[in-house]
Amino acid sequence: MRMPHPNVLIGLTIVSLVAACAIAAPWLAPYDPTTTSVLLFDTPSSKHWFGTDQLGRDVLSRVIHGARVSLMIGAGAAIVAGLIGVPIGLAGGYLGQTVDLVAMQFINLFIALPGLVLALIIIAMTGATMSNIIVVLGFVAWPGVARLVRGQAMSIRESVYVEAARAVGGGTFWIISRHIWPNVFRLVAVQLATVVAFSIFTSSSLSFLGLGVPPPTPDWGGMVRSGVDYLTVNPFMSLAPGGAVALTIFGFYMLGYREQ
Amino acid sequence: MLSVIVRRLLLGIPNVILISVLLFFAIFGALGSPAALMLGLDATPERIAELERQFGFDRPLHVQYLDWMWKALQGDFGRSYTTSQRVTDALLPRLMPSIELALLGMLVATTCSVFFSSITVGKRIVRPLVNVASLIGITVPNFMLGISLMYVFSVMLGILPTSGWAPWSAGIGQHLLHLILPVLTVAAYYFASFGLVYRAEYRATSRRLYIQVARAKGLSESQVSFRHILPNSILPVITQVGSSLGQLAAGSLVTETVFSIPGIGTLFTNALLSRDFPVFLAIGMITIVCVVIMNLLADLLYVVANPQIRLD
Amino acid sequence: MGNDVLIEVDDVSVTFPSRQGLIRAVRNVSFEIKRGEIVALVGESGSGKSTTGLAMMRLMPTAGISGAIRLVRKDGKPADLLKLNEAEVRGVRGNDVAMIFQEPMSSLDPVFTIGTQMCEAARVHQRISRREAYVASVKALDAVGLPDPEQVMLAFQHKLSGGMRQRVMIAMALASHPSLLIADEPTTALDVTIQAQIVDHLKMLQRQTGMAILFITHNLGLVAEIADRAIVMYAGEIVESGSVRELFRRPRMPYTAGLLNSLPRLGRKKDLGAPIEPIPGSLPSPLAMPDGCKFHPRCRHFTPGLCDSGPPTLETCEDAHQVRCARWRDLARAAS
C-alpha cells in the first residue's frame, strides 16, 4: 500500500491523541474536572498546568475530559450524516432519472441552507441534549456526503466492469453492494473525517453561544464562553479549550486531506 | 438571456416557500405546544390553554402558517414575547451593524485572498504565509479566533478595543478601529475558502494558451497574473461570495457575541435562549430567504458575466 | 557572427526533468537565420522543433537550456538570450522576436475585446498613446486582410473564426515590428483554403517589413511554398539542412527522402498511381534512444555495424547543405 500523504499522518497522530484523551480521561487527567477548590483563578503553575477556573477547577483536566463530548458529537454526527447521505447518494447516482431528480432536488435544497442557523433553531426548540445535537448536526451534513456519493456512483455506473456485471445478470442491489460501494466507501470515509471536523466546529460554536450540552459536563465551547470574562485573570480558561478545539479540527481536517 | 433569468427566478420561489413551510411546521408542529415550553415545568394545563388561546396556538397549523406569512409579507412579524416590542422595531436598528460586519468581512476576505494568491513577486514568502493563514481560517472556529485576537491585541498589547462597536457618532476613526478585530475574525474563514476556490481556477487558467501568448508579447509575470489570469479566474469566487453573503444574513452570530456587537446575531441568539418565537422565527425566515436570493443572484451573475452566454 | 546574421543558435540542448530521469528534447542544435530569411524547421511531432522555438523565446521556465542563442537586437548590439535575466528577456519578447502559436482558437483572452489586446501588444514596447495604439492596431488588422477592422477591434474572440483569429495573432505579433517571427505550426489547425491565404499574407508581410521568419511545421508542402531554407529535425537533432530547392531535389538523408516520398504528388503522369510510401515505425521514446544514428531502426539503408555504432556527425556535402548520415556518400553515388 502506498505511503499516505504526510498530512494524513499528522492528522492521524493528532486524532489519536485526542481519542486517547477522550477514552482515558479519568486516568490521564491530574484532577477530577468537577472538583472545586479554593484556588480561584490560579495562573499556570506546576500544580495546575493551565491554572484553575472561576470555581477553582483544574483547567487541564477539564480540557482532557472535554475531549469526550467533542469526539462523541463529532463521530455521532458523522455516522448520522453517512446513514442518511450514503443511501440517498447511491440511489440517485446509480438509479438515475426520476430517482436522481428527486434526490438532487432534496440535496440542492438543503445544501444551500445556513447550517448553523438551522441547527440553532432546532436545538433551541428541542432542547440541548447530546443526542439532539448529534442528530441535528448529522442532518446538516448529510447533503454534502450525498452529493459526493452520488457523483462517484454515477461515474462508476458508466465504467466497464459494471457493464460486465450487468451483462452477467447482476441485480441492482448486488451491483451496488459488490461494485459501487467498495469504491465509494474509500471516498466516503475520507469525507466523513471532514464531517467530523465540521461537526466539532459547529457544536463548539453552539456551546459557546449557550446552546450546547449543559453544565457541569466539561465542554470546550462552553468553557471558552465562561472564560471570556476572565481573559485578564487567567487567559488559559478560554485559550486552552479553544486551542483544543482548533487542534482537533485541524487533526480531522488533515486526516481527510486529499491531494488536489 | 432574459429567459434564463426568469427561469431561475421561478425555480427559486417554490424553494423559499417550501423551506419556510418546513421550518414553520418543524418548529410548531413537531415540537408540541410552544406555550408549554414558554411557561416552563410548573405550568398548569389551564394556564397553558389560556396562553394558547391568547396567542392563537390552538388554531390548526396551516392556518397559523398562512396568517403568519400574510402578516410577514406586509412587514409585520408580530411582537416579541419578552419585550412586547414589535419585532420589526427590534430588528431595524440592528441591521446596520450586522450588514456592515458582513460586507466588510466579505470585502476583506475577497480582496486579500485574490490579491495574495495572484501575487508573483516575492512568491516564496507570500505563498507559505497565505497557506498558514488559510489553515487558520478553516480550522480555528470563529469564537476561538476572535478571542485569541482579542487577547493578543486588547489584553496583551492594548492597542485595540475589546468591543466591536462604536457608533458612527463617535467619529469614523473610532468606528473603524473597533471593527478591525471583528472584521478579521469574520474574514478569516472566507479568506481560506475563497482562496481555495480561486487558486484552483487560477491553476487551470494558467495552462491556457492565451496566457503563454501574453508572456510572448513581453508582459511581466505580474502583468500576466493580474491582467489576464485574474479576470478569467475570478468568476467562481464571485459565486462563492454570493452564497456566503446569504449565510451571513443571520449576522455573524458568534463574532457578534464575542465582540459585543449590537447586531441581528445577538438578537437572534438571545431570542433563542429565551424562546422568543416571533423574533427568531422572523430572523430565521429572513435568513433563509436571503440565502436563496443570494444564491440566485450569484448564479445569475455567473451567467451574465460570461461573455459567451451574454451575447447569445 | 557574420554581418547578415540576425540570430545564431549555438549548440543548444534542452533538457526536461521527469520521473524517469532527464529527457533531452533537443540535442546540440546549431543553426543561424539571416536578416529577412524565411527558414523552415521541419519534423514530425515530437522531433523537438516546437521546443526549439519556445527555447528561443525563453518560454520554458522548467527546462534546462545549455548553449548560446545570440541575437542581434534592434540597437545593433548582439546579446546571448540564454544569459539575459527575466527583465531583459521581456524586452526581447514581442519586440525583437515574436511568436505565433498553433491553436488560434485558444490564443486570445476571452474576457477582453480584440482591440484591448491589440493595443496592449502595441504599448508593451513602444511609448505611444492609446489613440496611436488604436490607429496602428486598426491598420495592422487591415494589413492582414481582415474586413472591417474597426468592428473586429470591438469584438470578443468567440465571434471570430479560426482563420480570422490567426490573422489577429499575426497582426498582434507584428505590433512592435519584430526582426524575427517564430511561427509554430500556425496553419495546422486551419482549413486548407485558409492555410493558403494565411501563408500568402505572411509572405507579403515579410516582403513589406523585411523581417525574418522561422516557420515551424511538419507540412513539406508549406515548406516549399514559403521557405528559402529548411532545417530537418529528427529526435531532437538536426539531420539535414540546406536550401529548399536542394533539399527537395537531392535529399541526402534517408529520413528527408522518406518525408518527401510520403507526400502525394500531382503533376507528372508517371507520378499518378505511384504508391505513397510512409516511413515505417515511429519516433523513438526519448528515454530509449537507439545507439548510433537515431533513425536507423526505421531506415531502408540501415547497415549494421555502421549505423548503430557511434553517432554520425553533421557533415557538409555541398555549400550550405549539411547532412547527418554515415552513408550519405554511398547513397548519393547510388542515386546519380
Protein architecture, described:
The complex is a heterotrimer of chains A (260), B (312) and C (336). Chain A has 260 residues and is mostly helical. Chain A is 73% helix and 0% strand. Chain A is built from ten helices and no strands. In chain A, helix 3 (59-95) packs antiparallel against helix 8, helix 3 packs parallel to helix 10 and helix 8 (172-209) runs parallel beside helix 9. The radius of gyration of chain A is 22 Å and the shape is elongated. Chain A starts with 5 loop residues before the first helix and ends in a 5-residue tail after the last helix. By secondary structure, chain B is an all-alpha fold. Chain B folds into two domains: 2-73, no CATH class; 95-305, Orthogonal Bundle (MetI-like fold), CATH 1.10.3720. Chain B has 15 helices and no strands. The mean pLDDT of chain B is 80. Chain C is of the alpha/beta class and 336 residues long. In chain C, strand 1 (5-18) and strand 2 (21-34) form a beta hairpin. In chain C, helix 3 packs parallel to helix 6. Chain C is globular, with a radius of gyration of 21 Å. Chains in contact: A-B, B-C. Chain B binds chain C through residues 208-210, 212-221, 227-228, 231-232, 307-308, 311, and chain C through 57, 59, 86-87, 90-95, 98-99, 101, 103, 106-112, 120-121, 124-125, 156, 158-159, 169, 172-173, 176.
